[in-house]
Amino acid sequence: MASEARPAGAGSPTPAVRTPPPDRVALRGDLRAALPDAAAAVLVTAAVFGFLYVRMDSGASDTVAVMPFMDDPGTYWMYLLSQAFGWSGLLWAWGTVMLGLLLSGRRPGGLPVRRETLERWHRTTSLTTMALMAAHALMFAAELVRYETSLAWAERLWAGFADSFVPGWYDSGTGQIAIPIGQGALYLAVPLGLLFYVRHRIGANTWRRLHRFVVVVYVLSVWHTLLYGTNVWYGEWPRTVLWLLQLPVAAMLLYRLLRPARRAQRLGPPPGTGAGALAPTWATRALGRVVAAAVLVGLVVVPVSGHDGGRDRPAETPATTPHDHATE
Ligand code: HEM
């Protein structure tokens, strides 16, 4: 017997229109908005990859100067791609940190871009940065898996994963320090970046307090690169440029601390002289400003003095084993 057709809503509950939580909507929207930005990042990565490939092919690569066995870009293309993602990741991290500092400091006069636009750029570039950092580490893991031909597949996969993602596992040369620093940057970047999308749940103040630690992610990323990047290994101009690029970041950080956008974050009069902040808060804020000023001075002194932590290029090429960047 055929059942009778029922008009919608008659005798059955009206199907509820499920609205996804605002956090999820915001993340989905930002992921969509990040597509042009991510496409630009892919182009930059491809350009850097091409540059590194040509240099390795021509024998001019500093990576090969540090690790002579790597003189074949056709074999080591995944390593080169990892390096390229590392550079685009660092460039995007630079950009997103600059945008964040611009937003949290008092708005400089004559800025031709609306605040909402800057905020959107900050969010999309930060999503792209996380993806680039992850791609950098993943390509390094892929290269290790490719390299370990003497192991069985399960062991190969584990070796690549553990050396790249398990802190303390990588046990060779400078990487024993540099890799965990890179991992620290990646593992902090993801929660600190994504907490924005759950700020309704954790509270705007908690989010703001946690989000400021993003500057640690940036410091760790630069530190990791200065320690381990073979293209900035020697005390020559590429390393100097990397140091100099940190000057605007430190200057913006100092400006942001001296002239915060939010009145509540101003230093104010010292405790005991009026309605200023409590003594520990005031002392922490004052210390932050002094440290930022000292970092700025340090960033001028390092390139000018030439004491930038770069190694001396040896007269003869060293005989190194794979992935064993010698500790200086
Ligand atoms: C799981 C985390 C990470 C791992 C396993 C890792 C691994 C490595 C390795 C092995 C190198 C040496 C490559 C060379 O020979 O130059 C390197 C360099 C580099 N890394 Fe990472 N890294 C990680 C996180 C990061 C993060 C978060 C950044 C920030 C964007 C970053 C940016 C760079 C850059 C710019 C270089 C220099 C590449 C070059 O000299 O061409 N890394 N990383």
TrEMBL record:
Subcellular location: Membrane
Sequence segments annotated as region (Disordered): 1-22, 308-328
Keyword terms, alphabetized: Membrane, Transmembrane, Transmembrane helix
TM region(s), chain numbering: 34-56, 76-103, 124-142, 177-198, 210-229, 241-258
GO cellular component: membrane
Membrane topology, from the record: Multi-pass membrane protein
Signal peptide bounds: none
Domain Ferric oxidoreductase: from-to ranges: 92-221
Pfam families: Ferric_reduct
Keyword Transmembrane: yes
UniProt keyword annotation of Nucleus present: no
The protein, known as: Ferric reductase-like transmembrane domain-containing protein
UniProt organism field: Streptomyces chumphonensis
